[in-house]
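Subject: sequence -> structure tokens, single chain

Hey, anyone have a minute? Need the predicted structure for the following. Not urgent.
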Amino acid sequence: MAIFLVTIGAFVFGIILIVLLKNTSPPPPQEQVHFDSLDDKPSYLKDREAFKEKCLEFLAKFNLEYRHSIWANEHELEIDMMDETPVVGGKYLALCIYEPLNNTVDAIKVKGFLESVKGEGAARGIFITTGYFTSEALRSIEEDPVELVNIVAFLDYLKKFDIY
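Reply:
Had a minute. Here:
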């Protein structure tokens, strides 16, 4: 009987450890972008107005009609768009961050954008940055209608759409 109880106890303990490990394992490292020289870096990653134009060109590829935009500060561009597609269309918001502090965007900034998307009644939000998102920021929007696009994904999309 004692062997049976020890076996059951070890099994339950093992299941608990597996569950805990799933919740605490580190996320895979984010892919990084490196340029050999400053000349190799595209102009839209060196100039904020060129970045704005590239963001608008990128968003237009998703059938989003530009309405207006405003620089909230030196690094943050807020864009209001509309998708006229029946059923799935509606208002879209984009936040484009040029050269974020420490080259990362944290969960507080992402959650703030998510609240703006919900507060404005937008169908979706698209968050684009020339940097990277922290792992906490990536986890904070798992079920929410916000798409996070870091520099790696942004460059991949631009190449895919032939607008690099």
